[in-house]
């Protein structure tokens, strides 16, 4: 028992925080609009913040966004960040977790060709083939992982921890069930969720999810939840990885409703609450707080090598 306690204490003392920030490059307001105000005006604010705080991140582009604004993708690369992909048109490529009006999943046989085209569009625009991916709305599937494996991707930032609640650290996905460990070449990097709180959302437990709390409740709140998650990981003796998802439109003023002639889109208030440049200040608080705790920021494409290295070190102990 003493030996087990000593091993647990050693893990807690030697468990650094690895952070991956994935910015989903899509149309404004969660793709409920066709506009790119956030992409063109919010992205520069993010790039300046990342330079100011000296962190490296991953920007995940839809094929449509990189066609419309290839210069934004090239600027992300030029500023030292990774450019990955985020589906062709922000469509539902995986298995939906809840209903959205007018949103239907594409057919399984459409997944590979659409992700291949998304990949090609990004490579054509930037000269660099993307190897990191995230499904829109964190709606993943085994079909998606199989397509990513075939296309040479190495990282998938999709797994919604708040919903599946089984995997709390990166793992190589099974080609039979993407939510389980397997022998594919695709590393699944789970999106951080609050696994300490008591959920008041039976079944879905979406209130555990991180988004958009950094701007609705603030950077300090998110830092507290992040450190609580580290304690959660320490207790399970697993490495602490914090994968965040944000969008450039969150950092530029958005309208509360949009009229399209035949219909008006009125997002729930939390979606547009506190969007604008003030969100940059809250994200800065979170980043600086994590850095003060010794966190290391990485691009998604580099995490698989780190995971393999740590796994080999454990085998050799």
Automatic annotation (TrEMBL):
Domain NodB homology: start-end pairs: 27-178
InterPro entries per UniProt: Glyco_hydro/deAcase_b/a-brl, NODB_dom
Signal peptide interval: none
Superkingdom per UniProt: Bacteria
Entry-linked Pfam families: Polysacc_deac_1
Stored PROSITE patterns: NODB (PS51677)
UniProt name for this protein: Polysaccharide deacetylase family protein
Originating species: Tessaracoccus lubricantis
């Amino acid at each position: 028992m003493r030996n087990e306690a000593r091993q647990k204490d050693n893990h807690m003392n030697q468990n650094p925080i690895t952070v991956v920030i994935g910015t989903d490059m899509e149309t404004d307001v969660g793709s409920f609009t066709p506009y790119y105000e956030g992409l063109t005006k919010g992205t520069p604010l993010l790039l300046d913040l990342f330079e100011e705080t000296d962190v490296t991140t991953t920007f995940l582009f839809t094929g449509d966004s990189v066609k419309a604004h290839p210069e934004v993708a090239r600027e992300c690369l030029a500023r030292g960040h990774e450019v990955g992909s985020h589906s062709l048109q922000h469509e539902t490529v995986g298995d939906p977790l809840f209903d959205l009006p007018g949103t239907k999943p594409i057919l399984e046989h459409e997944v590979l060709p659409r992700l291949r085209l998304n990949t090609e569009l990004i490579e054509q625009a930037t000269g660099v083939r993307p190897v990191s991916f995230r499904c829109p709305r964190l709606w993943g599937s085994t079909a998606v992982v199989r397509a990513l494996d075939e296309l040479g991707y190495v990282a998938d930032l999709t797994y919604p921890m708040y919903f599946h609640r089984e995997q709390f650290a990166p793992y190589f996905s099974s080609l039979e069930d993407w939510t389980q460990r397997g022998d594919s070449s695709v590393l699944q990097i789970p999106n951080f969720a609050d696994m300490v709180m008591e959920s008041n959302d039976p079944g879905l437990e979406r209130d555990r999810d991180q988004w958009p709390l950094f701007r609705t409740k603030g950077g300090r709140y998110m830092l507290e939840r992040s450190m609580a998650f580290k304690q959660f990981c320490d207790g399970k003796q697993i490495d602490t990885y914090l994968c965040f998802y944000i969008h450039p439109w969150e950092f530029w003023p958005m309208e509360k409703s949009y009229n399209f002639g035949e219909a008006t889109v009125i997002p729930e208030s939390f979606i547009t609450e506190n969007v604008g440049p003030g969100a940059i200040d809250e994200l800065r608080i979170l980043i600086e707080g994590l850095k003060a705790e010794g966190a290391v920021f990485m691009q998604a494409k580099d995490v698989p090598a780190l995971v393999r290295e740590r796994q080999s070190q454990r085998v050799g102990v």
